[in-house]
Amino acid sequence: MQTDLAPIATRSPVCIEVLENIEAALAQALQEATRRIHSSESASQAEATDARDVIFSLAREEAVQHLQGLAALANQAATEMAAEDARLAACENGLRCWLEAAEAMQRKLADWAHRAV
Fold first, then answer.
1. The whole model's pTM is what?
2. CA dist 9 to 12, 14, 19, 21, Å?
3. Cα–Cα distance, 17 to 25 (Å, whole number)
């Protein structure tokens, strides 16, 4: 919708100046609105980036805590395994001693049986 401003413009140079001032003010308002929109978009992008950074940081901290927990569990398991290995070694040694004693007793009984015959 375009209006013909020729009749107004021919009436007075003051009208032309007023219209030019209105046009300049509208152009400036349009520029300011555009700047605000871009500024708002930039702020939204910055906030989204900040939110992603916070989420990533929290996830990283949680992962580090889980890894530290796993390391502690691995250390505990290694300690318990070393204790079990020592216990099994002691049991093995006791069993070997018992088997040697049983073999000695078997030889002794065989020797007695051989003498009795």
1. 0.43
2. 6, 9, 9, 14
3. 12
